[in-house]
What does this fold into?
Amino acid sequence: MKDEAYIKRCIELAEKALGKTYPNPLVGSVIVYDDKIIGEGYHHKAGENHAEINAINSVKNPELIPESTIYVSLEPCAHYGKTPPCALKIKELGFKKVVIGAMDSHDKVNGKGKKIIQDAGIEVISGILEKECTLLNKRFFTYHEKKRPYIILKWAQSADGFLDKDFKPTSISNRLANQFVHQLRANEHAILVGTQTALNDNPSLTVRNIEGTNPVRVLIDLDLKVPADYNLYSQEARTLVFNTIKEGTENHIHFIKIERENFLPSLMNGLYKEQIQSIIIEGGSYTLQQFINAGLWDEALIIKNENLKLGNGTKAPSFDYQPLRTQDFRDNTIQFYQNPAEHVV
It folds into this structure.
């Protein structure tokens, strides 16, 4: 039970960096001596120290380390990247014991970190709160194992099932629900819309109302109909434009050529090559329906304004699933769904 409590603390620490570590996973670490935490840390940002190093650096009495246990939510890395391998540092310092939450399925790690530590004669236990630790890095695992981003569908609809009134942009969600949506944008790696939504709504797809990093913007514009002076082409965020006409980079806009016929597989392949680990599919109805029909989604959230009836306009996507939970945001509700066929753990 003590091992589980310390791994739980690792998860809490790791979550502090949600949306900031791409392309790296979220990782937390705790160092325990004589049933007391003497050091803890988490991975803040790609290129900076990993969780284990931050935890080690926080220990005030380093002489206690050889008699201590280091807990880490994900298997320590075994390769040289922007930082040296954490497994070698753990071996060098001679920890008494290492407790791992989930193993790392990334090709460069995948058991190698654990082996380095075990070969040094250090006791290693893995699989503590494995389900929770895997869920923490659902984006990372989905990207590396399924060769595509973790996909979140999101839309707002009226009580009578419309996305807008008379096919014109209509405000549906309230300020509280909007704040939640902007936090979601800050947490995820990218956000996607199709041509029609870009033309109708001229969205910025940036983070507002809260502090956070703008996601990578993804525009599906097969015939390049969206004018270059629209908000999606602003310099506020990196933008990927999937189209059938041209390829190349112009300033911060990256044009990626894909096939019209094999659209979704081509899109997934393009996003994988661009190292996009998670993406919010924000619209419109046609684009969302393509993902739903293909079963190509991991989570979905639907904002409903129970007091708003629009009578006519763009119909909400057809989506026949039961929500896992529903949360109230004053006169709005948000229903949360998980694709049973694509569950990551």
Q: What stands out?
A: Residues 47 and 82 are 5 Å apart (CA to CA). The longest strand covers residues 150-158. The first helix runs from residue 2 to 15. The chain has a mean pLDDT of 93.
